[in-house]
Write a structure and sequence with these properties.
It is a single chain. The chain is α+β, with helices and mostly antiparallel strands. It folds into 2 domains: 1-130, no CATH class; 159-354, Glycosyltransferase, CATH 1.50.10. 40% of the residues lie in helices and 16% in strands. It has helices at 2-9, 15-31, 59-76, 78-90, 136-142, 147-156, 177-181, 200-217, 263-266, 273-284, 314-328, 331-337, 340-348; strands spanning 35-36, 39-40, 57-58, 97-100, 103-111, 124-128, 160-164, 167-171, 192-193, 234-237, 240-243, 290-291, 294-295, 299-301, 306-308, 352-353. The strands form 7 sheets. Strands 3, 4, 5 and 6 form a 4-stranded antiparallel beta sheet that branches. A two-stranded antiparallel sheet has the order 1-2. A two-stranded antiparallel ribbon has the order 7-8. α2 runs parallel beside α4, α5 runs antiparallel to α6 (147-156) and α5 (136-142) packs across α13 (340-348). It is globular.
């Protein structure tokens, strides 16, 4: 949905055609996609909109979807705004809130089947957002419906602070790069701090530079890594889909096979624009890496050969697209950040200009 805004701004699609596409998508989400208290399943059957196999109802995947809903609502207005509000108002955030050891948390997911994904033989709620990950947008989105709980929920999750060569940042437990990037695909937080004076933008920048340094420290073993080709994120590899982890992390174990996804450095464009630009130039020179829909999802340079996938993952391509827009036109940022639910949610969380 957010890409439609970029398309209109770049004159790749007319406003009217983009409007029709956004309306069809929102109509599908509201009237034809299976949901639970307004939350969507992680995977859907593309032909029916019904749940795919026994996957979970996912708060984070719903939240990512809602960011797109908010963006098109703000940009297109009219009928789009009406449909978007119906989707946003249907989400029952309070249903996923619970208290543990005197702290409020969101459950991560719900699965009605005891033999379903992530259930471990017991149907019901699955784990909780008790650590920093990619869920930041959830607290802002939920604030309109549960303003009395949103700030406590935001302060409830644990912040793992690490000092990496003199740079301190709050680390996601696995220290996977996309976690720092995803919220910033919609939230322009460059000059925003919370009520503790903490900047999630600065935090993501420090984490990104940590990924670059960690990659360089292991470039003797993994030939892909260099100053402009770096990052431990989630992508396809020669052995299937993997989620890589940089150091430090909770397990203190580097997880990589040397594969780099373009979404790593390019998904960091607002954070390190000069480095990301050089990374883009470097990758455009790798023969076979650029295809019909842009840079392929991943590659791995070895002593005697270079592996390049022929696959695209929409979520990684989308991240690259939005982060490029964030440093060129900010069309998605402008639409998203002016939506009343977002301005209100940021007020509730006491996020403000520094």
């Amino acid at each position: 949905m957010s890409s439609l805004i970029v398309g209109v701004n770049q004159q790749l699609i007319s406003f009217n055609n983009a409007y029709k596409q956004a309306k069809l998508t929102l109509d599908t989400l509201y009237n034809h996609v299976e949901h639970y208290h307004g939350f969507f399943y992680h995977f859907l059957d593309i032909k029916t909109g019904k749940r795919f196999m026994k996957n979970e109802i996912s708060t984070i995947d719903t939240a990512l979807c809602l960011c797109g809903v908010v963006a098109v609502s703000s940009f297109f207005k009219q009928e789009i705004e009406v449909l978007a509000n119906q989707i946003l108002d249907r989400v029952d955030w309070k249903h996923f809130v619970f208290k543990k050891e005197n702290k409020l948390y969101f459950h991560m997911a719900y699965n009605p089947d005891k033999d379903g994904d992530y259930t471990h033989g017991k149907a019901g709620f699955v784990h909780q957002w008790d650590m920093f990950a990619e869920q930041l947008m959830m607290y802002v989105l939920a604030a309109k419906q549960i303003p009395e709980l949103a700030l406590d929920l935001y302060h409830g999750f644990k912040r793992y602070k690490v000092n990496d060569h003199g740079k301190e940042f709050v680390m996601t437990p696995g220290n996977t790069l996309f976690v720092y990037q995803f919220p910033l695909a919609w939230f322009n937080l460059k000059d925003i701090v919370d009520d503790q004076g903490f900047s999630w933008f600065d935090n993501a920048k420090a984490a990104t530079l940590n990924h670059q340094r960690c990659s360089l420290e292991h470039q003797d073993k993994y030939k892909t890594f260099s100053t402009y080709l770096f990052g431990f994120t989630a992508s396809i590899t020669e052995k299937g889909y993997r989620v890589f982890k940089g150091l430090p992390n909770i397990q203190q174990e580097l997880v990589t096979d040397g594969t780099v996804s373009p979404s790593g450095p390019l998904g960091s464009f607002p954070l390190i624009p000069d480095i990301a630009y050089q990374s883009l130039l470097k990758m455009l020179k790798i023969k076979g890496l650029y295809g019909p829909y842009g840079l392929y999802d991943a590659f791995n340079i070895k002593e005697d050969s270079t592996w390049i996938t022929n696959r695209y993952y929409g979520i990684n391509q989308g991240l690259i697209l939005l982060m490029l827009d964030a440093v060129t036109n900010q069309s998605v940022y402008d639409a998203f950040m002016q939506h009343p639910n977002i301005t209100y949610g940021m007020e509730v969380l006491r996020w403000k200009k520094r």
